[in-house]
Amino acid sequence: MTFRVLVTDPIAQEGIDILKGGAEVDVRLGLPKDKLIASLGDYDALVVRSETKVTAEVIEAGQRLQVIGRAGVGVDNIDVEAASRRGIIVVNAPEGNTISAAEHALALLLAVARHIPQAYQQLQKGIWRRQEHMGVEVRGKVLGIVGLGRVGSEVAKRARGMEMKLLVYDPYVSAEQASRLGAEVVSLEDLVRRSDFITIHTTLTSTTHGLIGARELSLAKPTAYIINAARGGIVDEAALRQAVDQGRLAGAAVDVFTQEPATENPLFGSDKIIVTPHLGASTAEAQTNVAVDTAEQVLAVLRGQPVRYAVNAPLVAPEAYAQLFPYIAAAANLGRLLNQLLEGQLEAVTILYEGEIANHDSRPLKAALLSGLLEAVTDERVNVVNVDHVVAHRGLKITEQHNLTCENYSSLLTAEVKASRGKSLAAATLMRGETHIVRLNDYWMDVVPTGGYFLFIDHRDRPGLIGSVGNILGQADINISSMQVGRLQPRGRALMVLGLDGPIREEHRKQLLAIPDVYAVRLVKL
After folding, report:
1. Partners of 346 in the beta sheet?
2. Calpha distance 108→365 (Å, rounded)
3. Is the Cα dihedral 235, 237, 238, 244 positive or negative?
């Protein structure tokens, strides 16, 4: 059988040549949406970068389509859910530009340390003022790395070669893994306080948006520099500009912006802030790597072979997948819940499968749980294809246990996360087609994660306490949609879980904490 591949965005010729080795290839760049839809029905594979928008409508037109290849990292321009519904595998190339991104971050670090762009601009104008460009050496300086994923790890390796001292903030990387790279794991506040240079290498999510704002910047040394070659929005741009202008930071180097393309930005116009137009992956080698990785995976899918970076493909026997599929959402919700209950540095995860689900290949549930656990800190989609690779890279210890019997339910999925500041455990099952979280640490209860906000209140069981909580929430105009209370004994330690119609503000959380016999208050979104 002859396969046909359509390429609609520019990719390196090396990738095209690989595709031509196993398929007929048509390169049609810049196709308008209507022509793409009209043409796609004749192809088995589609290869894009970021320009082509692969919407649900486009996917529906691909009657023969088996695989969509994204020559790059993000898949924001591809409707992955629509592809999954059609059984179309989506692959990407998350490692192809790793080295280029790491090298650009270090290039920015050296440039800001030695004022290279400023000196260049002056000398081009015929101005020779060496004294204005006194720089600092990086040897012996402290480099704080925020995010020790693929790029952050490569930065760490190279910074050690420059004899820098390394600090790391990444709650989802073990201390042992960081130690292997010569880095010390610390809190974000400690990293900001101690670092001479701070470089960002985490993904942009709801939890990392504004991760470094005015408060964090106020903790930094006035001689410190910040480098952001990860994603715009992780560092508050206005706060960063103000800190530099006021002399509370020595300078910054930024490659990414909240809005791109960026022709106007608060960071522009300062001679202490170096800016580049998102050049992290702009090397010939990176473009070749992502093209080759994508092409090889596209052909592998067409030939029925496994691939490493399948964004949405569970390689599990169909009959097993049919049995496990209902529990995938439950597993993902457990991971998200434990992510928000986690305190300290994640070290290990133990997963227990009980009852009917213990009879099947557990990889889809393991992948779903870890995807929920890690989704706030990585844009790498965790699935059955890459779950072991992701876990190994982060140095996490994963233990799985199977028990073919279950005392109270037909199936029960339990996960415990161990962190530097304690453990958290949660268990879920399926009833009437819905996920039910039935255990939280030592408490048995029944919480249905309906896609909203939940308030977890650790307290002592006593008369009047629930009324006090309700009174504060009522005054804040926060409606309670559900309530569950688990207790170990009357008037002993207890856990209250309230479903809310909306989030509470920090001032209300503090009011709840001020109630006598309330030990902890945490807002969780599921």
Report:
1. 419
2. 41
3. positive
- Just give the CATH number of 314-449: 3.30.1330.90
Q: How confident is the model at residue 317 (pLDDT cuts 50, 70, 90)?
A: low
Question: Tens digit of pLDDT for each residue in 121-155?
Answer: 999 999 998 988 999 999 999 999 999 998 999 99
Per-residue DSSP letter, 1? -
Rounded CA gap, 105 and 111, in Å?
10
* pLDDT above 90 coverage of the chain, percent: 70
Give me the pLDDT at residue 316, please: 52
Selected catalytic residue, list 104, 150, 231, 336: 231
Read off the DSSP letter of residue 336.
Answer: H
Distances (CA, A) of 206 to 18, 150, 156, 303: 38, 20, 26, 38
Q: Do domains 98-275 and 452-526 have the same CATH topology?
A: no
Strands 24-27 and 4-7: parallel
Give the position of tokens 């268990």.
Answer: 427
Omega prior to 277 cis, within 30 of 0: no
**Which of 278, 460, 493, 509 is labelled catalytic?**
278
Buried b or exposed e, range 114-125, using 16+ CB within 10 angstroms? bbbbbbeebeee
* H-helix or E-strand spanning residue 513: helix 506-513
Q: Summarize pLDDT for 322-352 with one digit per residue, the tens.
A: 677 788 889 989 999 998 888 888 889 999 9
Q: pLDDT tens digit string along 446-484?
A: 999 877 899 999 999 999 999 999 999 999 999 999 999
The dihedrals phi and psi of 229, each to the nearest 5 degrees, come to: -120, 25
Q: Is 278 a catalytic residue?
A: yes
pLDDT range class, residue 380, cuts 50, 70, 90: low
Identify the active-site residue in 24, 163, 260, 434: 260
Answer yes or no: pTM beyond 0.85. no
**Residue owning tokens 């080698």:** 285
Average pLDDT in the chain: 91
CB contact set of 431 (below 8 Å; sequence gap of 6+) = none
Residue pair 336/526 in contact (Cβ under 8 Å)? The answer is yes
Q: Is 389 a catalytic residue?
A: no
Boundaries of every domain in the chain: 1-94+283-312, 98-275, 314-449, 452-526
Query: In this structure, is the dihedral angle defined by the CA atoms of residues 142, 98, 260 and 202, taken in order, positive or negative?
Result: negative
Residue with tokens 């925020």: 146
End-to-end Cα distance, the chain: 46
Using only C-alpha atoms, the chain has a radius of gyration, in whole angstroms, of 26
Give the class (CATH, top level) of 1-94+283-312.
Answer: alpha beta
Tell me whether residue 139 is one of the annotated catalytic residues. no
- Assign a CATH topology to domain 452-526: Alpha-Beta Plaits (3.30.70)
Write the CA distances from 19 to 46, 172, 292, 311, 454, integer angstroms: 11, 37, 9, 20, 49
CA 178 to chain centre: 18
- The hierarchical CATH code for the domain 98-275 is 3.40.50.720
pLDDT at site 237: 97
